[in-house]
Amino acid sequence: xxxxxxxxxxxxxxxxxxxxxxxxxxxxxxxxxxxxxxxxxxxxxxxxxxxxxxxxxxxxxxxxxxxxxxxxxxxxxxxxxxxxxxxxxxxxxxxxxxxxxxxxxxxxxxxxxxxxxxxxxxxxxxxxxxxxxxxxxxxxxxxxxxxxxxxxxxxxxxxxxxxxxxxxxxxxxxxxxxxxxxxxxxxxxxxxxxxxxxxxxxxxxxxxxxxxxxxxxxxxxxxxxxxxxxxxxxxxxxxxxxxxxxxxxxxxxxxxxxxxxxxxxxxxxxxxxxxxxxxxxxxx
Length: 284
Ligand SMILES: [Zn+2]
Fold this sequence. Notes:
By secondary structure, the protein is α/β, with parallel strands linked by helices. It contains 11 helices and 8 strands. The structure holds zinc ion.
């Protein structure tokens, strides 16, 4: 069983973690840009970060047979910072063209401010113009309210639901995300988010279609093998191998393949019999 972790921040992990991921069947990962824990004060630090995501991490992952992709954007927390927000937005049109950038992300809401909404709208418009998928972060605080607001904003901007992945869902937000017809991510994280058991209970109740699991492993207490742990939990709960493959491989692959940048990957996977079962064709 191949595993694609669609949301992980390996910049903050040690190389041993790549070995652990490879050992438990994780062959593909996608790293969205995020807040690095310390406020950045100029656009140059974002340029260096985007270079890191598209060069150094790709090479570090390849040493363990892992394909590393990324999402590029302006995260909601730093959308509030006038020292960087405008300048970062200005460099995004070029960076999102990078061959390993599969989506604009993670964007969204964090502290529910007007400025966050403004930069969310601008980046959704950029995604629409470039026919690109988007990865959307939902807030930790007032999550339900924030998720509803994000769904309304996506509808107002008119992004194709096929291109929208709403992340960090829980029992409270998943009905709204599913109703809107978006892809739904679930973060399995030891402290503030879901356990493997809770994530699998959601899959049992709401089905496997358009559902994904991720570790969001970062500098906090987190575990880069959590998607693999969920595979074990899904088996324990009686899911079929086909359902498990849909959640941990087909869905993330097919969502990101809409970028049009996974075609070489598909050509490599086909002879191995590992091509995901395709739901949606790339558009370009
Ligand atoms: Zn994240």
